[in-house]
Structures are given as structure tokens and as C-alpha cells.
Amino acid sequence: MRTPSSLSFLKKTVAASRAACVLAAVFLLAGCSQLNFWQMDGHQTSMVTAGPVAESQLQVFYATVWVTAIIFVVVAAVLTYATIKFKARTTDDENAPPPEQSHGNPLIELSLIGVSVLALVFIAFPTLRAIWFTYDVPEEERENAYVIDAIGYQWWFKFDYPMEQIDGVGALSVANEMVIPAGRPVRVNLRTVDVIHSFWVPKLAGKVDMTPNRGNHMWLQADEPGYFWGQCAEYCGDSHAVMRFRVIALNEADFAEWVAHKKLPARTVTPEIADPARAERPQITFASFKRNEYGFSDKWDPRSQVSPLDNWRQQQFPHEGEDAALIAQGRKLFQTKTCIACHTVRGHEGMGITGPELTHIASQTTIAAGLLENTPEQMARWIMHPEVVKPGNKMYTTGYVPSEITIDQDEALALVAYLQSLK
Ligand code: HEC
Ligand SMILES: [Cu+2]
């Protein structure tokens, strides 16, 4: 039998947990508003889709949510009803013997099984349809599909364009920013040179693994031109969390122009095309690096007047005020600092294949696998201290460390001037 003191303890516990629930709800709401939860339109949301593959996956999600929500409401209602209706109200109730035990009601149990099976079938239909649909480009559109090979490296992505061959070189190759034609299905062949990675562009298509020694593929389509955030979605080592990329979808004419331009060898800045009178030496303010400070490119200010796609477009034009002499000095340093061992600048020096191709590095919006904005300051930060920006990255561990490479401020200025001239 319960003593009054244990009863009051019980009441206090109930009151305390009620207060805890209210507090938790307040924090949850505050947190959600912080995360733009209600709009659900973050860069890496899968709730706002931009193409048919992501859309079909979202529909599966909703089907599952509705079925489970209905189950939740029914079960919670029955539970609430039983709790209130049959609760012990008096001491007599509390001391009453337990009701007569039975083996249950066969009708209720059979119908519960029946309803569960129906619920599963209801979820299975859209799921199976989506599995078939997302597996490969639909038969009738396969002819029209564009093909890209995406290859995972610790901790960046390489994109080869087998449909765009360059004489004497092979397929067009870029890194970390995959440009695709909008309104056209794109088949992405997934490969990796090292560990398992996973290719994920939330607004365009769900995750598919890049598995060692086993080809994999997926497809996606961006209905309209746009700029999309992507991310490796399978833990792959030290810098997995900052192994990002971008997908830029362009209309047909813009895409053709992009391809034609990327096929060209690297741009060479001669004194004739440079205008040193306007040359302003970029002031590098690099001092120390803190996580999440300005420079991380995963945030896009929603109040910004420029869309991410327009920002990308602006990045395609050469900077004003280039200094041909400084650029030439940077190009020299690019050789003497052994950058050429891992990087290729097609038409200039370098035939490295273990790092991203840098032939047109300056026209990217990001560097270091979608981590930093591609500005002179951020590029200097990356070249001088890659290990601080991206723990364990191969440029540092297999390049700077064994070859004892250090880059000082002046060398960084020249290297950055050179790399920023590669449009
Ligand atoms: C040992 C090979 C190696 C050497 C040497 C090396 N790099 Fe790299 N570099 C890499 C790798 C690997 C990455 C990709 C790192 C990542 O994002 O995780 C990279 C990334 C970069 C990027 C960013 C590219 C992009 O698309 O995001 C730039 C710029 C760059 N390196 C410049 C240089 C310069 C300048 C030098 C010489 C001072 C140099 N690298 C030396 C391997 C190397
Ligand atoms: Cu990865």
C-alpha cells in the first residue's frame, strides 16, 4: 500500500517532468526557428526539391510520414483514452484486485495484423516505384542523357566529362564544381580511388555510395538553372565533414559555352593583356583560422542581392588589374614548390593527377572541395596552411610534410596572383 509521502513524491515527479517537457518544447521551437526549420529551405534541404529524382524520394518520405503519423495518432488516442478512463481514482480502486485475465480478442488482433499489412503495402508501392525510377535514367530519355563520371578522393571530388574529349588529352576534367545542363537527365557514374564515399546533392538526388572496386551509378536532373550544394555522405576519414561540392546547372547555350571554354588550355597573362597600372596587390589579412568564421562558403546570406548562380557567373570573368610580372613569378613558384607533382595546369606546367586539376581554378566559386570561398585571401590561407583549414588533407600530409614545403606571404601573393589568373 502506498504511503502519503510516496504519493507526494510521485506528484512532484510528475510536475517536474511536465515542466521539463514544456522547457524542451520551448528550446526545440527556438532551435528550429534558428535553423529555418519552418521554411525548410536550407542549402542542403531535401524538403525543397529541384528535380524529378529528389521529388520522387520526397514523395516516398511523405507517404511514410503520413502512414506513421496516422498510426501515431490512433495509438496515442487509445492510450490516452485508456489512461484516463481506467485510472485508479480512489484508494479502493488502487487496492482492487486485477481484472480477470483473458487471451485477448481475436477479432481485434486479426484486424491489427490486417491494418499493419495494408500500411506496409501502402508504403511499399511508392517506395518500389521510386527505387526503379531513381535507379537509372528512364528508358525513353536515355538517348538524351548527359554522362559524367564522379570520382571520390579523400577529401574532394573529381568530375570527368567522357562526352567532351580534348585532342591529345582525353576527357575534360574538373574538380569540386560539377556543371550540368539544366532540364536534361544526367547519368552520374560513381567511382572512388580510395575509401567509400557517398554522392549527395540533397535538392537533386539522394545519396549513392562510391564503392572501391565496384562501379555504381545514379541519375539526377535539375529542372531549372541553379546553384546547388552537395556533400559526401559517408564517413571517409579526417576531413569527411568538409568534403563538399557544388552542382551548377546551366541552360543549353550557357552550358555549351562553359564546355568550350573549359576545353581550352590555361590562360596566359602577358604584359600586353595585363594592366599593371590598375594592379592592386591584394592585401592578405591571414592571421589565424577559426572554424566557422567568415570565409567558409557553406553559408549564403539570404538577404544578399546576388543569387549564388549570378555570383558563379561573375566568377567566370578575369579580374581587373592583373600584374603580369607577379603572375609570371607565381608560375615559377608553382614549379619550384612542387605543386606540379600533384596538379595539372593544362597548357602550362604540371601533370599531377593526385590533386584537382587547376587549369581553370579561378572560375570556381569555391576551393578545397567546396569549403572556402575562392577569393585571393582564402586561397592564400589554403596554400599557406592547408593543414589548419582541412585536417589531414593529402596536399599537406603527402606533399608539404615530406617535401618540407613552406609558403611565406610574398610567395603566397605571387602564387595566388597566378592561380587567380587561371580563368
Ligand atoms: C602531394 C600533392 C600536392 C601538392 C605537392 C600540392 N597539392 Fe594542392 N592539392 C592537393 C590535393 C590532394 C588537393 C585537394 C585537397 C582537398 O580538398 O582535400 C589540393 C588542392 C589544391 C587547391 C584547391 C583546388 C580545388 O579545386 O579546390 C589549390 C588551389 C592547390 N591545391 C594549390 C596548390 C599549390 C599552389 C601547391 C604548391 C605550393 C600545391 N597545391 C601543392 C595535392 C597537392
Ligand atoms: Cu568522402
TrEMBL record:
What GO CC terms are in its UniProt record? Answer: membrane
Entry keywords, A to Z: Copper, Electron transport, Heme, Iron, Membrane, Metal-binding, Respiratory chain, Translocase, Transmembrane, Transmembrane helix, Transport
EC no. given is: 7.1.1.9
- Top EC class, one word: translocase
Its Gene Ontology molecular function terms?
copper ion binding; cytochrome-c oxidase activity; heme binding; oxidoreductase activity
Enumerate the spans annotated as Cytochrome oxidase subunit II copper A binding domain.
143-261
Q: Which domain of life is it from?
A: Bacteria
Q: Which membrane topology term applies here?
A: Multi-pass membrane protein
The residues forming a coiled coil are none
Q: What Gene Ontology terms for biological process does this UniProt record contain?
A: ATP synthesis coupled electron transport
PROSITE patterns, sorted: COX2 (PS00078), COX2_CUA (PS50857), COX2_TM (PS50999), CYTC (PS51007), PROKAR_LIPOPROTEIN (PS51257)
- The transmembrane residues are 60-82, 110-132
Q: Where in the cell is it found?
A: Membrane
Its main localization is membrane
InterPro entries, alphabetized: CcO_II, CcO_II-like_C, Copper_CuA, Cupredoxin, CuRO_CcO_Caa3_II, Cyt_c-like_dom, Cyt_c-like_dom_sf, Cyt_c_oxidase_su2
User: Domain Cytochrome oxidase subunit II transmembrane region profile: where?
Assistant: 35-138
> Pfam families, alphabetically?
COX2, Cytochrom_C
Specify whether Electron transport is a keyword of the entry.
yes
Cytochrome c domain ranges (all copies): 325-423
Q: What does this protein do?
A: Subunits I and II form the functional core of the enzyme complex. Electrons originating in cytochrome c are transferred via heme a and Cu(A) to the binuclear center formed by heme a3 and Cu(B).
PANTHER family per record? CYTOCHROME C OXIDASE SUBUNIT 2 (PTHR22888:SF9), CYTOCHROME C OXIDASE, SUBUNIT II (PTHR22888)
Return the similarity comment: Belongs to the cytochrome c oxidase subunit 2 family.
In Swiss-Prot or TrEMBL terms, this protein is called cytochrome-c oxidase
Q: State the organism of origin.
A: Cephaloticoccus capnophilus
